Amino acid sequence: MRPIFAALVMLALGCAPDAPTLAFRVHGAPPDAPFSSADALVVALEQRGVVIAGTERSVPRDASALELGDLPFGTDLAIRVEARLGEIVLARGRSFPFDYPRHDAPPPRDPDVLIGTLGRFATPLEGTLDAPPRLIAPTADGARIATDHALLAYRAHDPQGGAALEVIAEVPSERAGAAWIALGEDTWALGGAASGLTRFDALGAREELALEGVVIAAAALPDGVIAWRDDGDVLRIDARDVVTTLANVGAPTASARVLVVPARSADRDVTRALMLDDARAIVIDPEGVEPPSIVALDVPRTGRVAAVVGTGLVLLAGGRDVAGAVTDEVALWVLRPERSPALERVSPAPPPLFRARADAAVASFGEGLLLVAGGTDALGAPLASAELVDVTVFPGDVVATGAMPFPDALPRASALHDRTVLVAGEGGLGVYFPPRGE
């Protein structure tokens, strides 16, 4: 990434002469040119996504200092930079959240800002991965990317400037092809291909959890893990590694996955696990109180996009049927735990995708908003195209958006804490700047 400008933001209580300054740099990532048509840069300080009153300032591109006046110190702060043409926002970027609890305790790192044109991808760094990514999980400094060979740290703002990607752990050979699970901000687990689970922390330290059978798919619960084993058993593993068998729902297919879905039941908030394979959707109560609810999907398919898009709402899109045909179909399903079956398809359906695709990357970057990118077309060729699916207004909308920097058959994606979306594939990394969801 290249620095566009550097600034000093003075966070002053009472504008005291010895008030500390907070330094940050603004970076653009090639091939994007986010300021090419802008006539103003607007900098502001946010807290939990809301602009703090009185902090928004318009600055020249070559600004070296900016005083934001009297500010409350606090946590979960972020610097937001926008490039505008009149009232139109052309480009936007945010720092990762940081804490500034008091005037004599500056943040532990410079909260740099990556800015890019809305609706387009940029390339944060050059290089490729050693294997297709299996998982991207957001972290406080960027993300962790898992492949069959390694767990890598993507640091969005390296101390030397720009972004960095480094291997922090090697994957045991017996785990190649395994299912990865994000257990939180600082722990990841790896199952499949061998019995048990392997856990990694944010620094790459590894430990083994003994477990009979092979875990094909799993997801993190608020207080543990729910896993689908090769013999069909659905397991709950709590924070103390106590294993409980919840049900046997039949053996999963190789492309099975597990989603954790927030829902409402009898006027209270609940959590359900949705076990998906090629032909079935199975609703599981993680507490084991309610029996499983099994729904046959309309057409058995591999490589579907599957994502939670709101409370009790799950979106399925694309995929390849048994004859090899790739579809552009988009389906919205609603989960109502008190009903039988607990999962129902919504009608009318959202519009179809612009490109039929299978094995695409998908990331939710706001309530009801998804980025779908890459995958393969009907001929098996890798795609670079991307599109936005918006179900914030019923029955939904699908629009084409900027293409990835590279075509990729098996990409993965995740929204990061600076509200960009990181997409990874064997061809490299791309950062997407959503035009919606602000």
Q: In a nutshell, what does this entry contain?
A:
By secondary structure, the protein is mainly beta. It is built from no helices and 38 strands.
Protein model, in words:
- With about 450 residues, this protein is mostly beta strands.
- It folds into two domains: about 1-120; about 120-430, 7 Propeller (Methylamine Dehydrogenase, Chain H).
- The protein has no helices and 38 strands.
- Strands 1, 2, 3, 4, 5, 6, 7, 8, 9 and 10 form a ten-stranded mixed β-sheet that branches. Strands 11-38-37-36 form a four-stranded antiparallel β-sheet, with no helix packed on it. A four-stranded antiparallel β-sheet has the order 12-13-14-15, with no helix packed on it.
List its salient traits.
about 450 residues; Methylamine Dehydrogenase, Chain H; ten-stranded mixed beta sheet; about 50% strand; globular
Question: Which structural category do the helix and sheet elements fall into?
Answer: mainly beta
Strand percentage: over 45%
**General shape:** globular
CATH class of the largest domain: Mainly Beta
Rounded mean pLDDT is 86
CATH superfamily of the largest domain: YVTN repeat-like/Quinoprotein amine dehydrogenase
- For the record, the count of structural domains works out to 2
Flag low-confidence runs: 10-17
- Major sheet, described briefly? 10 strands, mixed
CATH topology of the largest domain: Methylamine Dehydrogenase, Chain H
- Please compute the radius of gyration using only Cα atoms: 23 Å
Assigned CATH architecture of the largest domain: 7 Propeller
The helix tally amounts to 0
The percentage helix is under 10%
Distance between the termini: 24 Å
Could you tell me the number of beta strands? 38
